[in-house]
Every structure is written in structure tokens, then in C-alpha cells.
Write a structure and sequence with these properties.
about 100 residues; three-stranded parallel β-sheet; alpha/beta
Length: about 100
């Protein structure tokens, strides 16, 4: 059987810890997350968060994944556009390795 996961676009603005907890509660194997919420769109009023800027949140998210068995299947937010210098994503890629 293929693993079942929750994609971040279905959980708009939800912080990563809540995504992992929800996935575990629903018996999902994985989540797809971003390093921060989609700018300007938070219809449910979730608190601001950033995996880029908050090392404690990164550690807590990793620990929650380890504790629940939920894994991060994909990290989104790396957009290849003609005017983007892909080297600008180097720091983000380092965070998700």
C-alpha cells in the first residue's frame, strides 16, 4: 500500500507542529510542508511561523516527526522562474537536508 500524506496546501497557514500532529492523528505517514506560510494568505488566522528563522521550531518539528513516526515527504517553496537566481535558495536547501 502507498503511504498516505497531507499536503500543505490543504492546511493553509497551519504551523508545522500542528501539521505533524494532525497527520499522526489521522494515521498519515507523511506531510508536505513549506519553510513559512504562503505570504498574504491565511484564511484561518494561524499564528505566524518560520522554519527559516526559528531554530527551536525546526528542532521541535524534527522531534515531533521522530516521536510520531510522521515524516516530511516534501518541502515546498523553491520556485524556478526566469528571473530567480536559484543560488538564492542555497540557505533554504541547507535547512531541509
Amino acid at each position: 500500500m502507498n503511504p498516505l500524506g497531507i499536503e500543505r496546501l490543504g492546511l493553509v497557514g497551519m504551523p508545522p507542529m500542528a501539521q505533524v500532529a494532525l497527520a499522526a492523528e489521522l494515521d498519515c505517514d507523511c506531510v508536505g510542508i513549506g519553510l513559512a506560510p504562503t505570504p498574504g494568505y491565511n484564511p484561518d488566522g494561524h499564528p505566524a511561523w518560520s522554519l527559516r528563522e526559528d531554530p527551536a521550531l525546526r528542532r521541535e518539528t524534527i522531534a515531533a516527526c521522530r516521536d510520531t513516526g510522521v515524516r516530511i515527504a516534501i518541502v515546498e517553496g523553491f520556485v524556478a522562474l526566469p528571473d530567480n537566481d536559484m543560488r538564492s535558495f542555497a540557505g533554504d536547501l541547507d535547512l531541509v537536508r
